[in-house]
């Protein structure tokens, strides 16, 4: 029987912060509830200061909820043991510059109780996964922004967690690095790892997420399956390849002669700027 | 990539001691790679240079060598105290805010790491660094003292025999010189220096849990170090407050100072060792107990504050 315990359960989360000078309370999160089933990729989107990062921090026990509760695979987030099954990549992380890529992964692996051959094997696997084998012994001080994000993702995965929490995983990364991270998320989804991410890059969220929540001023304003949220129910899209002008004319005439149906738009679909960039920049690669 | 559904990481996230040690070794490595050991070169210059400081001669030639040995110890132990206390305070004050600022703390606390393990690990890393630094300085100081004391011993023995001193007088002179050499009491004094730095590092850890900057933590820690030397006076004020008509504010301050801070005057025993006196084991045991007590006390207090801290 499948395990019905959700990977993430946030119930009525409220978080107030004291402002520095005035002792007024600032409500960062106002009654947010999220349930993420095991194996799902969930995207939380919203403008800056809407409460995304605070929600993630509450889920990781880095901040204590003012009201409500958070649980990871059924365990209260404030309990240290709940973090055995979680990997976290914070926004713009700066890891220890004095450590090399392999040393960084060893450090985080040891914190999770891994030792010896198992750890070494895991470090090599992860460096291969994030394509940093060539920078294995280079200190992080010399890593680029994209490499830092990827080593951050590797450290999040070190103990083979069932849940991965990514706060702006592609922030400040170039399109190629961003695509690599997106592909990694696809790989993780194939392996059944639950991913909870927040990002400003809506196109990427749309590409990788099964479900999406939109948070605004600390409140969840829209949530659901991505397909349901973005589908325009009264419209249908047909994309043809190598269609002759005559065929297009016949289809247009057929539509025009059908009562109650209207041709909204026809023309050539456009690629995205990202796809164009990737096609042009990766063309010369072996 | 293979998955490890029953990997050790999943079933067992390691022991407290294991995690503390991992964090301690990491903090140690971090500080070493900040090139803090460069100060050992400065110490070497001081330890060797103290051989040549020209001391005013108020005594006869039979004790002039002893004064040089005392000077080497005084300069070396003074420098050790300065370095160890500065290193203990500044390194501890630096590590915590740096982790918060760089958000590396998030990635550590997002692993199954209890906050007390993190604090204890950081402190242990700093203490390891202070211990290794003091051990290296001790080796250098002992080597300089050993060479110089054997030179002085030969010189003084020739002097005494030339003057026709009796065997008992010569033995007494030999004893005086050896008491100023690199003996067990001197190692005890170095350990006392380490204990004092450990107390200060633990105190800096406590302050850094609620302070927002390295500078604030360092300044307050040094102030407290200074105040700690008056702990005995504060205790006396508190105990005699009824009879002396002391006000309630003075009484409260003296109570807080005498309860929260150790009596740093107990460490004056180091000065006695510089003068050539032996350090009784009982005193060393007492200092060790005090050092341990305050280190544990400050770590527990730090934990109480850090456990509630939000990032």
Strand count, sense and closure of the main sheet of chain B? none
Tell me the number of structural domains of chain B.
Answer: 1
**Span of the ends, CA to CA of chain B:** 33 Å
Largest interface in this structure: A-B, 48 and 37 residues
Beta strand count of chain B: 0
Given as residue ranges, the uncertain stretches of chain A (5+ residues, pLDDT < 50) are none
CATH hierarchy, class of the largest domain in chain A: Alpha Beta
Distance between the termini of chain A: 46 Å
User: Counting H and I runs of at least 4 residues, what is the number of helices of chain B?
Assistant: 14
**N-to-C SSE series of chain A?**
EEEHEEEHHHEHEHEEHHH
Supply the CATH superfamily name of the largest domain in chain A. P-loop containing nucleotide triphosphate hydrolases
Hey, roughly how much beta strand do the residues of chain A contain? 15-25%
The coarse overall form of chain B would be globular
Structure description:
- The complex is a heterodimer of chains A (286) and B (311).
- Chain A has two domains: 8-230, P-loop containing nucleotide triphosphate hydrolases (Rossmann fold); 245-282, no CATH class.
- In chain A, 34% of the residues lie in helices and 22% in strands.
- Chain A is built from nine helices and ten strands.
- Chain A has helices spanning 52-59, 101-111, 116-129, 145-156, 175-190, 202-208, 226-230, 245-257, 273-282, and strands at 8-18, 25-36, 41-45, 67-72, 75-76, 86-89, 163-167, 194-198, 211-216, 219-225.
- In chain A, the strands form two sheets. A six-stranded mixed beta sheet of chain A has the order 6-7-8-3-9-10, sandwiched between helices.
- Chain A is globular and about 70 Å long.
- The termini of chain A are far apart.
- With 311 residues, chain B is an all-alpha fold.
- In chain B, helix 3 packs parallel to helix 6 (115-162).
- Chain B contains 14 helices and no strands.
- The longest helix of chain B is centred in the middle third of the chain and has 48 residues, at 115-162.
- The relative contact order of chain B is 0.12.
- At the A-B interface, strand 6, helix 2, helix 3 and helix 4 of A face helix 1, helix 2 and helix 5 of B.
